[in-house]
Structure formats: structure tokens, C-alpha cells
Amino acid sequence: MRYSVLKPVAAALTLALVTTGCATGGKGKKELAYVARDVNSLYSAARTRLDQRRYAEAALLFDEVERQHPYSVWARRAQLMSAFSYYLARNYLESIGSAQRFLAVHPGNKDAPYAYYLIALDYYEQISDVTRDQKITQQALDALGELIRRYPETNYAADARLKVDLVNDHLAGKEMEVGRFYQRRGQWLAASIRFRQVVDQYQTTTHTPEALHRLTECYLALGIKDEAKKAAAVLGANYPGSEWYQRAFKLMQEHGAD
């Protein structure tokens, strides 16, 4: 998944950095023993590790370029390549840190959009299933939104917009999961609040038809037939051929509604 996402843009960036200038890392960051080396040797060694898919080693060597030669033009390139390498090593925390350092020192650099893109991907790759806490999911949405806001015309923003749709669908799925939990327990008001959230905030997601049907069920259980009719009507107007509308239509008939 990561290769398919990064290849069109990250590979181009890597090539640009070179022409102008298979480990899987854990959560922690190791430190290399300090051995003084010239910048060309260090950067070349880091690129070799990257080409060999020894990503964690490559990241450490790129960090070493920055540490030993902090004021060289190579240090700037190494920061971004470090973030890229950590991303490939699945060490997302370090990748975010490297990208953020790059942006702090070089906010107006031409590669700043890519740094924002990497940060967004680092959060995006950590999104868990809908049964878990969605803090990371929200952070991914925020990071993607920041990229789109700052650099709306870039290829990175175009990809980010697609991912925003997927993230919103994920967040809506979480609301649905919680709503169904309350519904099974007969907590109709709490369930309806969750389903309403999906309809109001995630109305373009795949979960909206079911949310409207569940709202119809909850409102009928609460004795609010008029609200149930409204939810069913919205469902019929927007998703007339869906299974959820057929269910809602049958349910309303059973309750004597028009």
C-alpha cells in the first residue's frame, strides 16, 4: 500500500534530491556511534541502504548527515529523506518528527508540500479499525486538511482529498458502530444521537443510508413518528433503490404511516 501511494511523488522527489545534491524499524529510535565522516560518504551510504530497502538503517544515516554536517545543503535534503525512510520503516513517530524539523527550519522550501504530505501519511497509515479509539484517525484528517489548505493545487493535495473521503468514511463507521451498540441495548436516544451525527457530519459517506434507516427505527421506538417519517423521506429521496429504504418503507407501513 505504501509503495503504491508514494511511488508517483516520493520516487520523483528522491530522484530530484539525488540529482541536485530490509529493515523494519520498531517504535524506538536507535543512535549510531559517532564516527566522523565526510558528508558525501554519509549521504551515499544512506542512499545505498535506502535502495537496498534497509529503511531503518538508511534513516539513521540520513540523521547522521544532519548531525555531523548541520549547516550543509545536504542536511536539508537528509532531513526529508530521513522522514521518508522512517515512513518506509513504519516508524511513523520518527518520520513525523523529521518532517516537522524540516518544516520548522525550511517552511518556505519547495519541498515543504511533500513534508506535509509525509506527516499526513504517517497518521493515515496508523488508522485502526472502527472498534478502537479514533484519535489517530482525527489527527490524520487534520493533517490531510492542513495539506489541502496550504497547497490546494499540488498532486499531494489531490491524493489527500481522496484520503479525506476514506477517513471520513472510517469516522462515520465508528459512529455507526457505537450507535448500533446503544440500539441493541435499547438506549434509543443515545443511538439516535450517533446516527444523527453520521447524517449531519458525514452525509457523503457510504454509511448515510443505514444511518437514516437506524434513525427511523430509533424515532419509532421513542414514539416520535413525525421524525421517523422525515428520516424515511430523506432516505427515499436520496437512496430510493437502496435496501435500507426498502426496510424503512416497510417499517413505516407497519406503524401505519403514509
What does the largest sheet look like? Answer: none
- Give the strand content: under 5%
Question: Nearest-angstrom radius of gyration?
Answer: 25 Å
* Helical content class: over 70%
Number of helices: 12
- Overall morphology: elongated
Name of the level-1 CATH class of the domain at 1-126: Mainly Alpha
Structural class comes to: mainly alpha
Low-confidence parts? 1-27
CATH fold naming of the domain at 1-126: Serine Threonine Protein Phosphatase 5, Tetratricopeptide repeat
In CATH, what is the homologous superfamily of the domain at 1-126?
A: Tetratricopeptide repeat domain
Number of strands: 0
Q: Span between N and C termini?
A: 49 Å
Please state the average pLDDT score: 86
Order of secondary-structure elements: HHHHHHHHHHHH
* CATH architecture descriptor name of the domain at 1-126: Alpha Horseshoe
Commentary on this structure:
The chain is an all-alpha fold and 258 residues long. The protein has a domain at 1-126: Serine Threonine Protein Phosphatase 5, Tetratricopeptide repeat. The chain has 12 helices and no strands. α1 (2-19) packs antiparallel against α4 (73-88), α8 packs antiparallel against α9 and α10 runs parallel beside α12. Mean pLDDT is 86; it is low at 1-27.
